[in-house]
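Appendix B. Chain record.
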Amino acid sequence: VFENKWLKIQLERVWKKFVRMESPMPNFSIREERKKMDFHHDLAEISSRGLKRLGIQISPNWDNWHLYMNWVQIRQRRLDSLQHYQVVYSKELRQKISDFSENDKKSIADIENRLRNAEPITDYMSKLINSPSVKKSDFLLKAWNIYHLHLEKNNSKKKYTNPLLLFFQRKGNVVYFIDVQQHPYGNKWFSRELLEIVYDNWPELVRYIPNMKPVLESGASVNLTDEQVFELMKNGVTTIVPFRDGSLLYTSGGIAASGDGGTAVFIADKVWNALSLCQIRLNTNPQRYCNRANNGAYRIPNYKLVLEDGSFFANDKQRKEKLFLFNEPKI
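Structure tokens predicted for this chain:
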């Protein structure tokens, strides 16, 4: 309700100028006609299809946002094998690789060849790679961007027998082979030794702050064991880790309080908000996108969200029109 008539008149003028109506609209409610356009629902459908293709059971408790966030998280775990990677070894791994068994050497060579030739490496991944369970997820990957692969191919009928894992990081189109170590269990899933190797070979891959150490309110220094760091990670606590003469920060977006990866949550939020803005713009000024049918009546386009080759589009099949919205963030 406008008490000031002059203000009401001015706002009406601004609105008419904004929508730039070129011809009179038919007598119907735009809001009612556009109920079908729901980019968030479309995003959930896209995510659901992607998860089902991987054989992942979808929880009835996931809303539209969680469907997309979990799809992002699963894709992050699986690594994009559709691009060619350059592979580099740490000096520590090169020095010890000659002592490995012939089967282990072949596995490492096969993994390298697959990465270089844009072939999938899922055969060497954990059997839990597609598990949506937060408790069973890879906190080393979520917090530090460190992947691991088994040195034997996955066999659904039996457990892995080789206790060795290959740990690596990826940045851009380069994969960094860090080390081969025994399979850790429980709270042994955080190893400062891996980060030592990363820092000595590729310091640009870690977030190291020299001359800064965590301290208590009393001023006493804090010495966190690897097991304590893992427990903090598992409980969604973002912490700085004492390291040499300073401290390390999480390499990635850290871990959300829910236990989900911070990077996946950030990407999901960014896409969700961007789609909200796109839909608001289309709803706010629908006249810009209206056209006349053969009978002379106006029809407001009913866009459906599609994801093609890493880009989001608003697609109207009936009008044969596709509007580019934005690119999906790199996962």
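Further analysis of this model is presented in Appendix C.
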